[in-house]
Amino acid sequence: MDAHQKPYLILQIDEHGSNVGYETRIEAGIRSFRNHATMDHQKSRPFLPIITQPEKSIYARKTIIFPNWDQLVAPLLVANLRKLGLDVRLLEPDEEITRNSMVHNTGQCLPLNIITQEFIEFIKKNNLDPADTMLWMVETKLTCNIRLYPYYIKNLLDNYGDGMEKAIVYSGEVTHLDISLNACLNAYLAYMIGALSAGLVAK
Fold first, then answer.
1. Residue 167: which of 85, 63, 56, 57 has the closest Cα?
2. pLDDT at res. 87
3. Fewer beta carbons within 10 angstroms: which end of the chain, N or C?
4. CB–CB of 92/118 below 8 Å?
5. How far apart (Å, rounded) are the C-alpha atoms in residues 104 and 85?
6. Number of helices (H) and strands (E), helices first, in the chain?
7. pLDDT at 47
8. Is the CB of residue 141 less than 8 Å from the CB of residue 173?
9. Half-sphere exposure of 46 (CA within 13 A, CB side)
10. Which ranges in the chain belong to alpha helices (H)?
11. What are the CB-based long-range contacts (under 8 Å, 24+) for 163-168?
């Protein structure tokens, strides 16, 4: 299908399966097939997503916003990046922001919309210039199509407008090895300390 520049759909069925998730992906697949069918095939062109490619340089923007996906590990990872001289800020979870994020949700993974809304609200609250900010997101091939998160969030920001389309999404490794070896070693310690702390809290 790739060789003939045709869209296709792959459904991965595992223990995290969800009817809503499958329906959403099937709907997106059908939309892609219809778009492809209406293309001008007289002009040979590859089937490319309309979403902007996530940024690949951690130094591309002045301020880096980090998702608060773990209350124990995330602050340590942020401190680690600040130690390297980067201006890194940690997102602030809020129930009202979570409710507001549902406006953008059409059946996809809720954390995507929540992180996007938190990012938007953080920029507004702190009077940051979206053109000087980036959102750090993990790049991985693990389950739940996490690899597509940066693309989807960037698409939400572009659709939101109001200057947010100027912000970029950084797609980085969970180990932070893409930043530096020291960042990777300290990230390992952050995950280890966070896990040990979680164990102590559970006891």
1. 63
2. 93
3. C
4. yes
5. 34
6. 6, 4
7. 45
8. no
9. 5
10. 19-37, 73-83, 95-101, 110-125, 149-160, 181-202
11. 163/129, 163/130, 163/131, 164/120, 164/123, 164/130, 165/130, 166/130, 166/131, 167/119, 167/123, 167/130, 167/131, 167/133, 167/134, 167/135, 168/52, 168/54, 168/55, 168/60, 168/61, 168/133, 168/134, 168/135
Structure confidence at residue 78 as a pLDDT band (50, 70, 90): very high
Task: Please choose, from the candidates 114, 201, 194, 109, the residue with its C-alpha nearest in 3D space to the C-alpha of residue 147.
Answer: 109
**Token pair recorded at residue 195:** 């896990």
Q: Which of 118, 99, 202 is nearest to 160 (CA)?
A: 118
Residue 163 has pLDDT above 70, yes or no: yes
86-143 pLDDT per residue, tens: 999 999 887 777 777 777 666 666 777 888 889 999 999 999 999 999 999 887 666 6
Sole residue written with tokens 């089937």: 47
One-letter identity of residue 49? P
Alpha-carbon 41 to chain mean position: 33
